[in-house]
Amino acid sequence: MITFDSQTFLGMKQVLGYFLGFAIFIIGIPALMWLVSGRPAFADLPTGRLYLSVLLAIAGLSLSVWSIIYMKRVGKGNPFDAMGHEVAPRTRHLMTDGPYKLSRNPMLSGTYLYYAGILVASWNWWALLVFAVVAGVMLLQVRSEEKRLEADFGDEYLDYKKHTGRFITLKK
Length: 172
Description:
Radius of gyration: 18 Å
Largest sheet: 2 strands, antiparallel
Oligomer: single chain
């Protein structure tokens, strides 16, 4: 008989969270955008569009990965919380530095930047529609997450909200 202790179970939960995030946001949605746009051959793109697409995608993925690593190390948790349902252990510390100084949602900001790279490459209204729907759903998720963060961190989070933008912080 196989038994798991609580540490093993938490580790499995974290791996599941990362796997689901990768499968849905890094592979699934861009694949859908590519499919609905008529499956363009990226090798046939004009050079400028290809470079811009790759630059946006790499910058977005880099920001997202930095945010995930920072969340794991500083927040002591995992980002995957779906509409109030914990898929993996939640963060235990409010993060306000590193990528979280640039944005309250740097992981999602990076993902949007990655999708912008896919949009530049596909250059298609259907792909833009997929992005718009995903962005709308994710905005609902962000609002749900903000309520949870207010409940978990109280005034500390409310103060952070005053100084840091939801997706980008513009200095005044």
